[in-house]
Amino acid sequence: MRRAAARKAMRDHDISQRRVCRLVGxxxxxxxxxxxxxxxxVREELKAIASKRRRFGYRRIGVLLERQGMIMNxxxxxxxxxxxxxxxRRRRGRKRARGSRTSMPVALRPSERLPGSGWPIPASLRxxxxxxxxxxxxxxxxxxxxxxxxxGQPNTR
Length: 157
Prior knowledge:
Mean pLDDT: 77
Strand content: under 5%
Helix content: 40-55%
Structural class: mainly alpha
């Protein structure tokens, strides 16, 4: 905006560039600098790739553009990508069950059949402890003769 106002004032009122820049409050180098060219061919190719590859972001599209010989700064690529309102299409979340959730019924006896399961819990799985296996001399003795240790009898092995 300021650059355009400074150029218009220089053209219409025949004032020097230095004085116009001081009045408008803009640096003279920005007034001298031309606007970078807009790349319509890059924009078209960007749109074409994004329409084919909907899951590609601006970085992957930039790699494909480099392969075609259109090399540019990543910041410029991101600016063009956002100006064209391109973006990665988000995946939808997974569908969850509707309705009220009820908790699983608890078995009152060890061999009771639970509704929906159809089979009783096997005796070998009823008293399984959920901890890592024990190692060491005491654990080996416990596995060999647990009843002997509980009753106080000496271990014969």
